[in-house]
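Sample entry follows:

_____
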Amino acid sequence: MRRLLAAATAVLLVVTGCGGSGDEAGDGKTLKLWHYEGPDSAMGVAWAAAIEEFKATHPGVEVRFEEKGFEQVQKTAPMVLNSADAPDVMEYNKGNATAGLLARQGLLTDLSAEVAQRGWDKELGAGIDTTARYDERGVMGSGKWYGVPNYAEYVTVYYNKTLFDRQGLAVPTTLDELTAAMAKFVAAGITPLAVGGAEYPAHQLFYQLALTEADRDWVDRYQRYTGEVDFHDNTWVHGAETFAKWLREGYLGKDSAGMKAEDMGQAFIRGEYPLMVTGSWWYGRVRAQVQGFEWGTFPWFGMTAGSSGNLWVVPKGAKNKELAYDFIDITMSQAVQDKLRDAGGVPVASGATPAADPRTEQLNADFRELTAGDRLAFYPDWPAPGFYDVQVSAVQKLITGDLGPHEVLTELGDYYRENRSGTDR
C-alpha cells in the first residue's frame, strides 16, 4: 500500500548539492536519482539521509532527485530507460515480471563486478539476493546482479494486545493457537481479522495459509519455475479450503470483499479488529498512529511471504555510473541502514546495536529468524505479469461466495500456466 500511495501522491522534487551547475554529458558532476518512497516512510527518511551524505562526500556534484510514482515508473520504465532521459540510479520493483524483464531486454547495467568489489553481496542474507540476480531469461535467483536491495519486507501479524488481554489470550505460536484465539473472539461477538479484499492483502493471506504446508522446493517450483506446479496439490488445497473455512467461521467478514488495504489498516489502527495479517511496510504507520491500546507483532508460522525490498538499479544508458555506485554504497552503510531501522523499516544490513524501540527490534529479529531459516517465500503474484489483478479478483469472489475454493485454484492455475514469465527449465 505504501508504494500505491506513493503512486497517487507523487510529486517532483529537486535537491541541489554543493557547487557545480550539473552536466548531462556524463562528466561526473550530476547524479540523477529516481525513487518512489514517500518522504515520511522509513525508506524515504533513509534515502534522504543518504543524499545528504553523498553531497557531503562528493563536493561539486549536483544531485537531481525526482520522486516518481510507483505506477508511473512501472508503466514508463522500458521507454525512459531506452532514451537520453534515463536516470543514473533508480528504484525499481523486484521480480521476474519487472526487474527481470528489464534485464532480459538489456536495459539494466550488470552490477556483478561492482557487487563483488564493494562487498554488497556479503551484506545480504539467504533469500535476499534472490531478487537481485537474473538469468538470461530474466528469471530471478541466479545469473548476473542487476540490482541491489537496501531494505527488506515481509508479511507478519499485527495484534491488539489490549483486546487479547481482555480475552485472556497469549500470543499464538502455531496456526492452531491462532485459530483458537480467533474462535474465542467470534464467541465474544468480535470479528477477529481485518482484511482488505478489494485489493491486497486478502490474496496474500490465501497464500500464507498455503505456505503453512509448503517448503523451499514448493516455493521454488512456483516462483522460479524449477519444476511442475499443481494448483490442486495438498498445499494449495490446504490454503484454499482453510481460507473458505475461516470465512464460514466468521474469522473475517464477507464485507471485507469491498475493503481496501487503507481501510483495513485504519480499522485496525482505530482498534476495531484484534488482528491484521499484512506487510512490515505498515509498521511505521501503526507505530505512529495507534492510540489508546497496546499492540505488537508476531511472525507467521513456517514459510512466509517476503523478500528484499525494491532494488537500486543502474540503467544501461546511465551517464554517471560511478556516482550511482557510490550512492548505492552509501545506502548500504551502517549509519543509513540504522536510520532506516529506527524509522520503522527492515534493513538488510543488521548492526550490532539493537533498536531502541522494543517493537522495532522484534520486527527486525523476526525477519532475521526468517532469513536464517531460509523461509522467505516471495509474493504470490510474482510469477506472471498481471497475476496480481487475477489473484485479487479470484479471492474476492471466494469471499463473496461467487467461487468455491477449488474453482479459485482452477482460475489461478489456468492463468499461471498461460502467462508466467520466462520459460520452463
Observations:
- Confidence is low (pLDDT under 50) at residues 1-24.
- The domain at 2-150+309-352 is CATH 3.40.190.10 (D-Maltodextrin-Binding Protein; domain 2).
- DSSP finds 17 helices and 13 strands in the chain.
